[in-house]
Amino acid sequence: EGAGAPITLRMNDLVCVTSEDFVDRGWFYGETLQEIDGEETRVKGLIKADAVSRMEDFLLPLQQFERIKGAAARVCIFQFSDDYLKHHDLDWPFSHILHRRPLTITPGQLVEVVDESLGEWIYGFAIENADQMGYFPREFVMPVTQYIEMMECWGNDAERRTVNWHAEDRRRKQQRDVEEQQQEARAKKKSFLSFFARKPKAPPVPA
């Protein structure tokens, strides 16, 4: 069986590595969830090793950020921007106030809250763009503490699925080995029978 086609990853995609057999060539084998035809689909294939980082390395800066900022620390979990408002049925409550602008945020970005007294809308900024502040929906971000817990649970579940994947892979290999042995035994038996069937008859004894 082939290793599969390379998977095209997006920034901050979650990846479950199920095999490191190709790591010496710069690839992992694994799976990720991607939206295909409007549905989340589990996609398996090759993943460029230098395009991903381990979960603990990914979570470390989040943990440091949470320790410094406390309750003001958020992580974006859904894309939001001015363009999002134009194409989705979301009520922008500040249309009558010109200087209030939506903040562009993307999944995985760290966000610091400046003001959350406006109910469903939060005022803040993305850490890598601290000079640009704006508003975004409360439900589009998650407290860093909860996000870390969610990622750790996902990592533990992915580890269990990896173990299950390897176990299933071993079972399938054992099954293939048994089937190959059975086919080989049947082939030998058939060859043996064919040998006797093809053996020329002895010439008739002269009268």
From TrEMBL:
SUPFAM superfamilies tied to this protein: SH3-domain
Source organism (scientific name): Oxyrrhis marina
Annotated Basic and acidic residues bias: 168-186
Identification of the protein by name: SH3 domain-containing protein
Region named Disordered: 168-190
